[in-house]
Every structure is written in structure tokens, then in C-alpha cells.
């Protein structure tokens, strides 16, 4: 039994940290979480974070960074194993984990648009990625079928934030994409996903984008549906 002390360093809304928190909850591994201010990163954090980014996972005195490296470490050390046992399937899942980072980045870039023309152009790219994903998803309930895997833990924070934003943005993310919709619902229903975010996450997330996005006040003025 591994008894290392685990500390996750996070911003309150970081989806990459939430991936690690979901994996830790799925494995029932105790950990501490330290939140820092994204706009005022403390010196101790800048000293130990090679890219100035979260997540960091401190494993006793060793600092890990990059969510993919962190969750693969957790998966190797703490049961149950979430990555598929088959090497080809595992590589395929890793590729789609990378895709989940790309779609998160596309969503963030869309929200950071300076004007409506850039926002509209960014939504086109976002929808293209969603269509690709819809074509890849199987019968469910999870990416590989019946068993939850690391790839699901990577997508869950994206689906959670997208579900919270949809009533404001009304981009039609889930409309005509039944597989993504069912997969998203199955993930969000998991207690381990709900416990990976701060209390009142929906309000915290919307408030943060209202403040951070150039078009934030307008995009998140009020729920349309
Ligand atoms: N590839 C990294 C991405 C992590 C990332 O982009 N984290 C964001 C917060 S969600 C960050 O720390 N950005 C630096 C900043 O906001 O200054 C991972 O998977 O861990």
C-alpha cells in the first residue's frame, strides 16, 4: 500500500486539475488540495512549477506536473487500473485524451475572443471538433463501453463546464449529438466528478468567465434557457 502524502495544487476552475481529482476520487485515495490565485501566483508555486501552470501533484517531496503524467502515475500506483490493459486500446485512449485537451483549448480560445467575428469563427472550429468526437463515441455509457477509463476522467471536466455554460451560450453542443449527450450525462452523474470541483462550481465558473472573457458580461449576461 502506497502511503505517500499527496497534495494537488490548483486554481478553482482548472479542468486539468479536476481530471486528477476525479482519478483520485475514483481510486478513493486521500489527498489535500491547495488553491492558489490564478492572477497572483505565489512565489513558492512559481519556484516549483516548471511551466507556471496547474496542476501540480506533490508526492511527498517530488513535484509532478502535466495532468497526463499525473494521472498515469496515479493509475500505475493506485488500484483499480483505469487505463485499458490492451496496449493498442491504451494508445488509442491516450490519443483521445490529447483530443480532450485540444477541445478544451478550443473552447477557452472561443471564450477569450475579442469580438463577435472571432467568437463566431471559433465556434465553427469548436463544432468541427465536437462532430469528430460524436463520430468516435460508441454505444456507451463510457468511451470504451461499460468500464470507466482515464479517457473518461479527462473528458468529464470539459462536459461539466460545457453543461454549465450551455444555458447561457446556447451553442447547441448536445443538440443532434446524442452520443456525446448520453456520455456527458453519465459522467456528470458520477459522485467522483461532482466531488472534484469546488462548492457552487457553476456560479464560480460563470463568474470567472464573466470577469475574464472580453465578451464575458454579454455572453454570460443571463441564462437564455
Ligand atoms: N497541458 C497542461 C495544461 C494545464 C493548464 O493549461 N493549466 C492552466 C489552468 S487551467 C494554467 O495553469 N495556466 C497558466 C495560467 O493561467 O497562468 C496539463 O494538462 O496539465
TrEMBL record:
Signal sequence annotation: none
UniProt keyword terms in alphabetical order: Transferase
GO molecular function, one term: glutathione transferase activity
Chemical reaction(s) catalysed: RX + glutathione = an S-substituted glutathione + a halide anion + H(+)
Keyword Transferase: yes
Pfam families xrefs: GST_C_2, GST_N_2
Gene3D superfamilies: 1.20.1050.10, Glutaredoxin
One GO cellular component term noted in the UniProt record for this chain: cytoplasm
EC number(s) on file: 2.5.1.18
Regions that span the bilayer: none
Presence of keyword Transferase: yes
Residue span(s) of domain GST N-terminal: 4-82
Limits of the GST C-terminal domain: 86-215
Protein name: glutathione transferase
Organism expressing this protein natively: Candidatus Muproteobacteria bacterium RBG_16_64_11
